[in-house]
Amino acid sequence: MNKDKITEIFYIIDEFCQEFESAKEGHVVSKSCDKKARNRSFKLNDSEVMTILVLFHLGNFRCLKHFYINYVQVHLKSEFPQTVSYNRFVELQQKAIVPLCCFLKMVCLGKCTGVSFIDSTPIRVCHIKREKQNKVFKGIASKGQCSIGWFFGLKLHIVINDKGEILTFLLTPGNTDDREPLKSKKFHDKVFGKLFGDKGYISKDLFESLFIDGIHLITKLKKNMKNCLMHTADKLLLRKRALIECVNDQLKNICQIEHSRHRSFDNFLTNLIAGLIAYSYLDKKPSLKTDIIDDERVKKIAA
Which of 52, 151, 162, 67 is nearest to 111 (CA)? Predict the structure, then answer.
């Protein structure tokens, strides 16, 4: 991994953590205890823990333990001179979940350009045959169905722009309908213009409510539905809806947000958020060149 890239990521995260700690002072409720609380500094601070997690999701490692012991503690001694044991590092992950979420929301999310795509992808936590034996996600995960069959886990709903940047995301149980997150204005408060989705988002009431909020929901029609007029440019962009499928593929196969080795729900959230942050630092993201959709080309396709 490029050392300049590591330094760049650590610098951005460390600057954010310093501002986050200064803003947090005076707003944290301390535990009432007669004894004086210890205020020892950790060998690895939050910025170092966050950087290691992001680097893991940017690398080609599949196991966090193997990455930490055989790569960080061996090849990154100059960058992280004071490391802790792996068991202690796993404990420090839970401490860094709040700054990780704030860093993703405030720094890593993109801006809406007027052309957005929405989709959901399953996050499997175990094999479907072992759903009743899973104790880590008991009462949290559920059995759901997607285009490739049944699964046991959660659903990640994401909205991206035409540059491949994530605008917003939401994690729900596996049996949640794809249209349910769009019913909440908090989910799409940063989205405007045209929103392209698959047939799972077809709903007349949802279309009308989003249209009032300034969002034009565009989907393909089912076979038993009547045809309706659609602008040719919208038809061209609707064909490019597979862009968000490429984003889901990179999130799972490069940033590795999905695996079945979680032993704690808190660390599951930590790895998921770190994977979304790592995606924002990828050198190449799937994107559209909307400049090629000119008037002459539209006229030729319409003819």
Answer: 162
CB–CB of 24/296 below 8 Å?
no
Structure tokens at 133: 């034996």
Run means of pLDDT, 10 residues per run, the chain, 303 residues: 88 93 74 57 88 92 90 92 91 90 94 93 91 90 89 94 94 93 91 92 92 91 71 85 93 89 88 94 85 48 48
Residues 110 and 108: their CA atoms lie apart, in Å, by 7
- The strand ranges marked E within the chain are 115-126, 142-146, 149-161, 166-173, 193-196, 215-218
pTM of full prediction above 0.85:
yes
Q: Which residues of 76-115 are buried (b: 16+ CB within 10 A; e: fewer)?
A: beeebeebbebeebbebbeebbebbebbbeeebbbebeeb
Among 288, 282, 287, 289, CA closest to 250 = 282
Rounded to whole angstroms, how far apart are CA atoms 289 and 163? Answer: 8
